[in-house]
């Protein structure tokens, strides 16, 4: 998606982990805004997006100097106990702007030199492979959670046309695994998929997280409903996939291929 990139200098980059992220001491967003512009992105309904004139997905602010601010905040945060970081909750740290701006990489460099207790990197972008050298240095203190909501390209194009192809994400999971970086595949929000989906992920990951709008959008599905997502299902003749029970069908398919201790539901799957 075409977007404008602006550069801002943040006063602070570590936010307290609350609500869905209460298992973390902090969340960290290297950017404000996200040019992947997913149709179902609930951030569209949050103040960060509603106070802007431009449409969600068409603007991105890079937090210049974030790594310097982070180094100082990390030292202070340690005084209050273990520092566990979720990156990112309202942007994708490896969206296209990262290839130019490098904010996420600068933060990872800071973390590789002075590791937090745990870091979860939440992304849907193959660009994360660029930073394997730094992720490896974090050892078991990091997990890369790759969003793969479906194995159907037609479904991806309908719901998130501005995002990387499914195949590229699967190849990235393979590279991360070969490098020894802990990973998980995050099927969130669960979208219509084939029954063969679990078999495609089986060689790539030992941890699956399944979530949907109704458990995971922070409002019991209300935010998603207000985005009119149901219409997209209707256009594809897939309405039976829009509902609080749909995840269960996918969960059961995954349990035929993965041991139960490797398949997590909603918030549990994102915890450190
Ligand atoms: S990648 Fe995440 S933050 Fe970005 S638009 Fe999609 S759902 Fe929203």
Automatic annotation (TrEMBL):
GO molecular function: catalytic activity; iron-sulfur cluster binding; metal ion binding
Keywords in alphabetical order: Iron, Iron-sulfur, Metal-binding
Family matches, as InterPro entries: Elp3/MiaA/NifB-like_rSAM (IPR006638), MJ0683-like (IPR040086), rSAM (IPR007197), rSAM_sf (IPR058240)
Residue ranges occupied by any Radical SAM core domain in the UniProt entry: 20-268
Pfam families named among the record's database cross-references: Radical_SAM
Source organism, top-level taxon: Bacteria
Coiled-coil blocks: none
Protein name according to UniProt: Radical SAM core domain-containing protein
Species for this entry: Paenibacillus albilobatus
UniProt lineage: Bacteria, Bacillati, Bacillota, Bacilli, Bacillales
